[in-house]
Amino acid sequence: QTVVTQEPSFSVSPGGTVTLTCGLRSGSVSSSYYPSWYQQTPGQAPRTLIYNTNTRSSGVPDRFFGSILGNKAALTITGAQADDESVYYCVLFMGSGISLFGGGTKLTVL
Amino acid sequence: EVQLLESGGGLVQPGGSLRLSCAASGFIFSSYGMSWVRQAPGKGLEWVSLINSGSRTFYADSVKGRFTISRDNSKNTVDLQMNSLRAEDTAVYYCARRGPCASVCTYYFESWGQGTLVTVSP
Lengths: 110, 122
Prior knowledge:
The complex is a heterodimer.
Chain A (H helix, E strand, L loop, with lengths): L3 E3 L2 E4 L5 E7 L11 E5 L6 E5 L3 E2 L7 E6 L2 E6 L8 E10 L2 E4 L3 E5 L1
Parallel strand pairs in A: 2-11
Antiparallel strand pairs in A: 1-3, 3-8, 4-5, 4-9, 5-6, 7-8, 9-10, 9-11
Chain B lengths: L2 E5 L2 E3 L5 E8 L8 E6 L5 E7 L5 E3 L7 E6 L4 E6 L8 E8 L10 E4 L3 E5 L2
Parallel strand pairs in B: 2-11
Antiparallel strand pairs in B: 1-3, 3-8, 4-5, 4-9, 5-6, 7-8, 9-10, 9-11
């Protein structure tokens, strides 16, 4: 069974930089998995941040940056703000129409 | 502006059936793949199903054989027929538009509805 891994939680200071990662329990993540990233606050629908590894969705500030770091996809947030406090999900496209979500990373800004 | 509006959620007994619908507007519906993504209470997001622009369908293993996705391009709607429902199917179900697939496809969820709650309980 393929499992997409994310850190369960992370904290960052206001104004700081944080990098969240998205991996595979077995194997490496590359751009061939078309990694995408989503932000969700409680009670709200997800918001699309990044797709195709590093393309920002419309209206997403350039404080959000997607990349491949080593064998994982990564989401870097610079100049962290209070309203960045959310759960961040990555998705990998596994082929044959199938997408897999990671378990999400709860980001705390404090 | 892209709008996705889900409907059809509610309370259903285990073993029962429910049909969700998503009404789309603001884009050329027939050109896009559409997905359902769900979120159990207090849990993460889970991809459920995809119907591409050519009406080819795909399912997560957890729902294969029980759920059926379909689309009506004349009505700009995508439906999810859910049969043999289980307690673990309890979730908010989101309709999501896939990214464009022109000369090159983009494999992500570009737009989201607000979701509809399905509760499976005796």
